[in-house]
Amino acid sequence: MVINEGIAETAAAPVSPETVVINEAVAKGFDLIFRLKADGSLWDQNGLYYDLAQMRVAYKRIFEDHPGDGRKAHATTVYLLRNDEGDKGILVDADGIYEDSRMADFAKEVDERYYLVRDRKLQSKNKLMIAAVGLLLIGSVLTFKLISRGR
After folding, report:
1. Domain-wise residue ranges, the chain
2. Phi, psi angle pair for 49, to nearest 5°
3. Is residue 11 classed exposed, middle or buried when 0-12, 13-18 and 19+ CB atoms within 10 A define those classes?
4. Per-residue confidence of the chain (151 residues) as pLDDT tens digits?
5. What does pTM read for this prediction?
């Protein structure tokens, strides 16, 4: 293939779903590329260390190559991670957590925190919903009493 300056060429190969997710993440500011070192520590492409305890999963997507076929099963997981300081990046587990114990340990720790935070948010939303329904009910009763006094 010869690359001619000023001429745009379109690749005929289909774009993978993983590529679509990663491109959307980069467009939303997830511009750091994270990697796990042998000791399980998290680093970005600039050589900066990140404390796993401070990182949150903003999004997680698992892509299965052969869903339903355990003999050929291979999953790629894309994690979008962020911290409170505004650092946002992507960690891709292309081998599947069964291939790499570092990823398995990372996934377990991060998933536990991800689902704990999600469950807390759901509980908080449920409490707000119950409070809103209660206020609506009280308002309806008071309105009914005021209307019945006026007759």
Report:
1. 17-149
2. -85, 145
3. exposed
4. 444 455 555 555 677 888 888 899 999 999 999 988 888 788 999 999 998 888 888 888 888 776 666 555 567 888 899 988 999 999 988 765 556 677 777 777 776 666 666 667 767 777 778 878 888 888 888 888 888 876 6
5. 0.60
CB of 80 closer than 8 Å to CB of 110 = no
Compute how many other C-beta atoms are within 10 angstroms of the C-beta atom of residue 90: 19
User: How far is it, in rounded angstroms, from Cα 62 to Cα 53?
Assistant: 22
Of 40, 78, 79, nearest in space to 57 by CA: 79
Kindly list the distances between the CA atom of residue 31 and the CA atoms of 68, 89, 114, in Å, as whole numbers in the listed order: 33, 5, 21
Cα separation of 89 and 91, whole Å? 7
Q: Any idea what the Cα angle at residue 147 is, between residues 141 and 148, rounded to 5°?
A: 90
Q: How far apart are the first and last CA of the chain?
A: 88
Amino acid identity for residue 19 in this structure:
T
- DSSP conformation class of 83: -
